[in-house]
Structures are given as structure tokens and as C-alpha cells.
Amino acid sequence: MEKKPITIACRMDSERALNLARNIFNFLTKKKSKEVLLETRIAPKIMPHSSIDLEDITADNSEFIIIIGGDGSVLRVVNGLSQKNPPPILGVNIGSIGFLDETFEKRIYNDLEKVLKGDYLIENVSKLTAYLIKNNSEELRLGNALNEILIISSKFSKVLQISIKIDGVFISRSYLDGVIISTSTGSTAYNLSAGGSIVSPKLDIMQITELNPYARTGLKPIIIPINSEVEIRLLRPRLNGKIVIDGQTTIREIQPNSKIRIREAKCYTKFIRLSTSLSLNYYKRLRKKIIGNLRFPLDDSPEE
Amino acid sequence: MEKKPITIACRMDSERALNLARNIFNFLTKKKSKEVLLETRIAPKIMPHSSIDLEDITADNSEFIIIIGGDGSVLRVVNGLSQKNPPPILGVNIGSIGFLDETFEKRIYNDLEKVLKGDYLIENVSKLTAYLIKNNSEELRLGNALNEILIISSKFSKVLQISIKIDGVFISRSYLDGVIISTSTGSTAYNLSAGGSIVSPKLDIMQITELNPYARTGLKPIIIPINSEVEIRLLRPRLNGKIVIDGQTTIREIQPNSKIRIREAKCYTKFIRLSTSLSLNYYKRLRKKIIGNLRFPLDDSPEE
Amino acid sequence: MEKKPITIACRMDSERALNLARNIFNFLTKKKSKEVLLETRIAPKIMPHSSIDLEDITADNSEFIIIIGGDGSVLRVVNGLSQKNPPPILGVNIGSIGFLDETFEKRIYNDLEKVLKGDYLIENVSKLTAYLIKNNSEELRLGNALNEILIISSKFSKVLQISIKIDGVFISRSYLDGVIISTSTGSTAYNLSAGGSIVSPKLDIMQITELNPYARTGLKPIIIPINSEVEIRLLRPRLNGKIVIDGQTTIREIQPNSKIRIREAKCYTKFIRLSTSLSLNYYKRLRKKIIGNLRFPLDDSPEE
Amino acid sequence: MEKKPITIACRMDSERALNLARNIFNFLTKKKSKEVLLETRIAPKIMPHSSIDLEDITADNSEFIIIIGGDGSVLRVVNGLSQKNPPPILGVNIGSIGFLDETFEKRIYNDLEKVLKGDYLIENVSKLTAYLIKNNSEELRLGNALNEILIISSKFSKVLQISIKIDGVFISRSYLDGVIISTSTGSTAYNLSAGGSIVSPKLDIMQITELNPYARTGLKPIIIPINSEVEIRLLRPRLNGKIVIDGQTTIREIQPNSKIRIREAKCYTKFIRLSTSLSLNYYKRLRKKIIGNLRFPLDDSPEE
């Protein structure tokens, strides 16, 4: 395995991120005589000859891929990579909101040493695939989601009306801004903002969370096995919807009466984790990045 | 007062609504020898010579205005009417979600008789005005809201970061989809979907309700007197916002560091209400249209 | 299997329930020459000689147990039965809130015919066990929960302060009324009222849902595999807690610094389900009993 | 006014609070030759001859009352004081959750100097009164609430069923743990934990917030003018309720079919506030004690 190159992807719009990419590139090429590849759009700024297109990167030609940025950058790269056999990801946070990342600027070189020594675990993460069915025609595959598939109104000020089926059983009909179908991985992202629950990555699930249902009368968040099939139908005459995958890809002009089906994807995303157990790694990231640490006086007691 | 004409506004995209407009037009012209005006866009379909532009309609030239549709239609007309001295509104629901309406197709002729006899109350409703301040320059007036002013990200998949001041005091900073500043009238509309409280129209207030704050860490809904000033500042570099007034008017390309100020408007909207008291009228509409009627068994008791 | 008796349990405080128990007793004894047993407390009202104590009922001496009442009755019986090898349950609703029940008064005889023919499925349901650790001493087993284990303040008006660990990792500290640790089965019960998510019974999980955390700053609901260990510690000096299991059993006077641990129970509860698939059975009960059916006009469309 | 004594009330169960009470007592008697009174239960520990019963303290015999503790202590004293003409309150926090307090240990002597010079504002706070009506008999006055009146089930594990009327109009019927009717002052207390909105003290209101309604189907929080009348009726046969006023006074054994009415109280509570405006004082306490200060990176921007 040590003969494969390492790939670096990075935000374009941050000098700080690009500088870090350059330094990591130099660190890896010097220290380990490793071949290092760069995603096409940043290569001209660092080493033009080492360029590789995102869609060509696989586990066959990359030992792993370093992604410099926040969760947005990870999602962009995951959506851009080959879906079949992608390399493991090492996320490096540079100051944004980031839950998927494993390390950050100050710790990156130490952590890279560990990874190069093979001193890490792989977190294997399930994904979802969205399909579109127009007028009862055949299914059109739309793409894979690591975090969530979001179905929303095409006009912000016009509420959607949708019906939801699970495994072919009609569940409910609601007026709402939209609906989120998220993975465990995505449960701490938009799903949580919308009122859904946090779900351990050990549980392979889909979570259906409605976005601002009218008069709060909608379906409460519901969590089902990932091998279920969710079908959303757009009901409101003359109101199109749109589908947003991981906040990265938008499919517009979804017409009334279209159905969107969501099922488990046939591929995985792999994350490099630097802890003695994946469970410990998860709960610590959860506490640090999502839950935070309320500071109440520890000796507080009620008046008797 | 009986010498002023009555005006009719109506949805264009519903034959049912246009037929009802035509029938009401005939009912009023025949029965009472009343002059009846029609908003410009529907006049060609009913009586071309009786046309009047929305922005020209005032309490001086219209005894009242009948609006046929749902809440969306009422909001469109309220936003299109002269802001200074608008006539009272009689909302006629034709099957959509409607909370502002007072009557519906089956009862409209009975109810019109009552109104023509003066057998009604006027509900006087406060509004909000939004102002834009770019680069600490002067305030630019954006428009008046009956229901709410919504500030959202210009890109659905990129969360806004905003700070909120009330009466000049810094209150909080949040990552979120957007923020709603609503009136009492708007408290049962988008504000309620987003988790805000229902507020009696007798209370003259603004309610600030955050839309899907990141990790649910945002400000809880807060209700303040309508003579307060709310200031929202867009903080995230390179991310524009947009402002949506009553779901009708959208102001785009609000740049980072812009401030939006919201204060009580200097004008009112008037609704015709057909009850013995405004309070009774409100609570009955609330129960019927928002709360609904859960049917639990009345003789249910716990096992002892 | 057909040689085993059938057992009947029933609410005591409802004449209607007792009459139904009597009729079912007669139906079964006549029609099938079946032996029918009655839980001790109702036997005197129906057939004194056929009495059996709840704790003595097992799958060895009962083909199945009919429970007449609502969810409260099912929970009482499940908590009273032998925990080791309990018989399958057929719940008969008589008008209360009931999600666990499979049939109701009008359909009971038809459904009993099906069950007697073996025309049913068994839903095998995981449970939780609570343990108490005082002053770092040994674990004291408190009991098993089908729905949830609730830890609350002993004084309604004094908020608890607790810390939560999962698998030994500290997660959070909160001020709150209490905390619910529920199963999938319990996810639609108190957990849902408190803001937790609905979880498919196919997923073997624990859900931790905080009850009214102070200033809404608490942990959001979190869902973890059922083979996890949750540890709750009471932190507030001079404030006792209490533990309520399935709303049936209350353990009082839990002192500050006590720890409560929750793990998967080593026993199951079995429900008789009368559908072609457990999944279909679940989603239909969910829609009918929890979600309800909002009636919005189907031809509603936004004004254009 | 300077001739009236100052009174001190204090937690009994905290040495730290009692020491502070002693020090403040000495500070006031020495420095200003003021007469200082002590609530009866703490007097023996400080100066037995200066004792006064809470219920005897009025604005006629006390210039103001210093309360040492947290919100619980303020609520205890407010409920124990003469309701007719109570003196203004200066709350001194000693480390607990406290929103009503104005000062704390480190700043108390500076702040006392200001108060003695008259350099303060008075916040005049409305309260609610609860009345009980058994079997349509006469109203029985139960007591006044500064924060909230809470109506809950007498058995924690049995949900209440209640109906709610406002100004005589039936609003809704729900299954729930309980219902909170709070003032603006109480809006940041239990009401907020239960999902209600924060309400500015400038608005004289009641907020009705349901506590864990069954399947989340209950009434959303509703805010009405304080001169409204709320009537709650207990509906579930054989299930008593109880009423808790400000977490201090509990009225038990409220029987099915009893009605509880809530109206504005005829008395006020006065707080000493040390700011240039009551509005500024409120928003600063709100930010500091309730909202907190999320620390997000200020230069965060989305990847382009």
C-alpha cells in the first residue's frame, strides 16, 4: 500500500488553506519521498505537474486524500470523487464549522506521522442515493448523499405539499418548507438544525425530518433502517420542488406529481480516525463540536 | 359612506375564484345599485370599464375591498395597495390555507348583507417596516410587512451568520438558515412553523424567531414591544442574504456587513370582522384554522 | 403448542373491560375447549378457580396472554410477568390511548380465530435494564423497561443536575426536570412527548431524551446502539432523584452522587401481530395512532 | 424615606449566604447608622433582636429588602411577603442559577452605596392569581405567582387531560404532563425550558405553554394580554391534579372536573435595577444569564 500517492484537496478561496496545502505537500514529498497529487484546481498554485481530477481519484491510485477546509469542503470532495472506490479521507479543519474533520492545522504534522505509520482506524460510512420518477416513468438516478438529501420548494415563499411513503406504506401528508432524509453521519448537520435527533454512526439508518411544517402539525422526525425505501411525492399543483444533495448539487424544476425515492447507496465513504476506538472518537467529537460544554456551578444546590 | 364603491381583488389562476368574483360583482351591482370596481388584472374578465389599479385604491375611493383567495392573496393585495390609507379588507377563502380570511364561498352573500348594513367590527392591525443600511450609509426603506420580514441566505445550502441587536443592545450571534421578525398577525404564519409562539392580536409586538439555527444553539423566540428597533447584521464574508417581505417581495443581493433595521410601520391594515367581539372572533379562527380539534375519548381514565 | 392454556389479564377499574374479559373467557372455553386462566385479581369476578399470579405466567404454561385495556395495562402486565420466559401478548384496546395493542373490542373474536389458527407473526421486542450504584458500591438491579427508564427530580419544583456518560465517555451536564432513556418501542410514548424521535422497532437502540432542560440548553435527543451503556449521575447536593420504569415502578430516594446505569436487558417481550409483515403492521399503527391524518385540500395550489 | 429600616432575607442552608448576610448587616448598621431587620429564621444567627416575620414586611416598614441566594430564594420571599404593599427587592446572587437578581457577592457593597444614594430604577412587575372552582361552586383564591402557575398530574406517570378556555372561548383539549401559565417575568424560567418564548417585561401578558403534550399534538405556546382570563379544566376521571405556584406552594388533590382560573393579580412586585434604563438592564441580563455567548470564528465564510 505504501507505494500509492497521497492526494490533497483544498478550498480555493482561502489563502490560509492554500498555504497549508503547500506546506503539507512539501512535508510529504520531503519527509517520505512520497508521490503527492493535487486536485486539479489547486495544482497550478502549488505544483502544476502533480494534478489529478477529483473524479479520477480512487483507492487504487491514492493511499488517502487530505481535505483542507471544513465540512463544506469534505462534502464537495466526497461528491466530486469517483463514487465506486474512493480513497479514505483525512479532514483538516482550518477554522470553520467542522464535524467530519479529524485534525486541524496545529496538529496536522503529528497526525500525518501517525497515519503514515498505519496507526489509524477506518470509519466506513453508508450513504443514500436519490432517484427521480417523473410521470410514473423509469427511475433516474440523481446522486449519492453522505449527509442528506433535501427536498424543498422552488419558491422560498410558497410552501410545498408532500406525501411520504415508507416501504410502500403511506405515512403522512404535510405542508412544509421541505423535508430532509439524512444518514447517521448527517444527523448532526442540517437534520439537527431542523429538530432531528443525533444518531450514532454505528446505526445504519435514514432519518426523515420535516422542515418547518405548517402550524407545527407535521410528522415528527422518524428513524428507519437504511435498507428501507422512502418515497416523497410533490402534491401541490403548479409548484415545483428542488433537490439538494449534501448542500452541493441542486436538481431544479422537479414538477408536481414527481416522486423522489431514496435508498441506501451501493458505495461507502471512508474516514481516517486517530483514536483507539471509533466509538470513543465519535463521542469526543460530538461533545467537542456539537454539544459544547455548559459551565454551571458544580456546587449549586436548591434552597431547602 | 354608502356612496363609495366597493372593490374586488382576486386570484387570477383559479377559475373558481374568478367565477366567484363575477358572481359577487353581479350581486353587488344588482342588489344595491352599488358601484363596484375590479383590480386591473381581473377587470378584462368581468367588466373592463370598472378597472382600478391596486396602488390607487384607498379608503377614500373604496368603502372596502373584497379579496378572493387565501392568505397568499390577502398578502399580495395588502402589499400592492396604497400604504397610506387603505380600505378595510373582507377576505373570502376559496379552499386554501387561510387565517386572515373572514368568510368563504358558501357564506359570502349572507356576510355581504351584514357588511352592507354596517353590522361588523374593524380589526386594526399594526405592521413592520424594514430598512437597509449599506456600509453605514443612510437608511433605505424597503417596504411594509403585515405578517413578517424574513432574512435568509442567498444560497440555500450556505448558512448565514448574523448578529442581532434590540434597541441598540447586542443580543446574540447565530449560524442559521434565516431569521423571521413577525407581527402578532404573522405569529400564526411562518413564525409558527419555525417554532415561534402564537400571539394575540391585542398585543402590539415583534417576535424574533430564528430559522433552523445550527445545532439548535440559537436564540429562542423572543417577543418585544412593537416600538422596539431590531437590527440584524450579516456577518459571513462572501455570503449574501436576501429579504422577503410577507412572502411577496424579495430584495436580493444584501451584502455582508449590511444591516437591516426593523421598526413599527406608520400605517395599518384594517380587516372586517363579523363577530360580536374581536377577541371572540380571533380565538374561534385560531381554534378552527390553526389548532384543530383533537378527538380523544372523553371517558378515558388511567388504570388504577 | 395447542395444549397450553390461554391467559387473560385486564383492568380492574372498568366494568366494560371486565365484561369483555368475561365474554372472551366464555368464547375461548366454549369454542375451543381451551383451558383459560385469569390473572389473580380479576379471577374472583369471572371464574375463581382459574386464577394464576402474573409472576407465575410463562411461555411454558400459557400459549399467549390477552391483555384488555390500553398501553398502561400492557405495561403493568409486562412489568408484573415473569421476566425470563414470558408468553406472547395480544393487546385489546378498550378506548384509551393505545399503541402497543393489536386489536379492539369490535374485532376481537375475528382476531382470536386468526390467532388460534396460528395465523399471526411474533414481534420480538428488546428491553432495557436499570442498575443503581450508590457510593461506588456494587450494581443493584432495579428492573426491566419495555418503553423507558425515567430519572426525575424527587421535588417537582427543584431541577436536577445530571451528567451523562455513554460507554464511559463523558457527554454532557445539564439542568433539567429529568431524562428519559427509551427503547424503539418506547420511542412513540413519553419520549415523543418530550421531543425525541420516532424509531422503527427494527432498530435496536436506546434514545436519550432530556426533559425540559434549563433554558433549552440541554443535550438534543441522541440515539445509540442498544448494546451501549448509559450512565447518569445525580450531581446536585441535597436533591434526591427518583427512577420510574415504564410508568409502573418507582424507585425513590436516589441520593446525590448515585449513578444509574442502563444496559440492554437479557429478556424480550413478544407481541402477537396480525399482518402480513411486521413492517407494514408498524407503519399502519404509527399512522393511525400517532401521526393522524391531517385533512388539507388536495387541490390547493399557490397563487401565481 | 431614609428613616425606614432595610430588611435582609437569606438562604438558611448555605454558610456562604449566611456569612454574606452577616457582613451586609454589619456594613449597613455601621456605615449608615441604618436600622437593619432580618427575616425571622436567620435572625438568631446574626442579631436575634432585629427579627421580623416575612409576612409582616411591607413598603411601610422597610425601605427595601435584600435577598441573598438565587431565583429560588427570591421566589420564596416574594411568596412569603405581604402581598399588598411589599418593599422593593434587591437580589444578590451567590452562585446559583439566577435571573431575577441584580447584583452578586463581589459587587454588593458598591451596589448598596448606589441604592442608598437613590441611584436606581424600580421595575414594577405584574403577577397572576390562581383561583379554584370545585363543582361550579364559588372561586377559592389560591395565591399569587411572580413567575408561573403550573398545573400537573398528581401521579407522574399518568398524563392529565385538560381543556383550556380563554375569555370563555374553548381553545383546545390535550393529553399532557401539565400546563404552565407564566408572566413575562417567568417567561425565561420554566416556561422557556418547556418550549415557550422569551417575553420582554415591558409586555404585560400571560403565556400558556403545555408541558410534554402527548405525541407533540398539543397547543403551541400562546401569548395573550394579562387582563385575559384563562380557565383550565381537569377532564380525566379518577386522576387528580396539583397546582404549583412559583415552585414554592403546592396545592394537592385537585379533583377531576375542577376548574382553575387565572387572572392578573391586584398587586405587584418591585425590583431594584441599577442601570440607566430598564430596557438595557433587561437585555443585558438576558444575554448574560439566558442566551450565553456562542463563540464561532468571526472570519468564517463558506467555500466558494
Structure at a glance:
The structure is a homotetramer of 304-residue chains. Chain A is an alpha/beta fold and 304 residues long.
Number of helices of chain A: 6
- By DSSP, the count of extended strands of chain A is 19
Largest beta sheet: strand ordering of chain A: 3-2-1-4-5-6
- Element-level helix/strand string of chain A: EHEHEEHEEHEEEEEEHEEEEEEEH
Strand fraction of chain A = 35-45%
> Could you say which overall geometry of chain A the principal axes of the C-alpha atoms support?
globular
Instruction: Indicate the multimeric state.
Output: homotetramer
CATH architectural name of the largest domain in chain A: Sandwich
Rounded Rg of chain A: 21 Å
Structure in words:
The structure is a homotetramer of 304-residue chains. Chain A has 304 residues and is an alpha/beta fold. The first copy, chain A, folds into two domains: 6-119, Probable inorganic polyphosphate/atp-NAD kinase, domain 1 (Rossmann fold), CATH 3.40.50.10330; 127-267, Sandwich (Tumour Suppressor Smad4), CATH 2.60.200.30. In chain A, 19% of the residues lie in helices and 37% in strands. The first copy, chain A, has helices at 15-32, 43-46, 71-80, 108-116, 190-193, 278-291; strands spanning 6-10, 36-39, 51-52, 65-69, 89-93, 103-104, 121-133, 139-145, 148-153, 160-166, 169-176, 178-182, 198-199, 205-211, 222-225, 230-234, 241-245, 249-254, 259-273. In chain A, strand 10 (160-166) and strand 11 (169-176) form a beta hairpin. The longest helix of chain A has 18 residues, at 15-32. The first copy, chain A, starts with 5 loop residues before the first strand and ends in a 13-residue tail after the last helix. The mean pLDDT of chain A is 92. The interface between A and C is large, with 53 and 53 residues. Strand 15 (222-225) of chain B pairs parallel with strand 13 (198-199) of chain D.
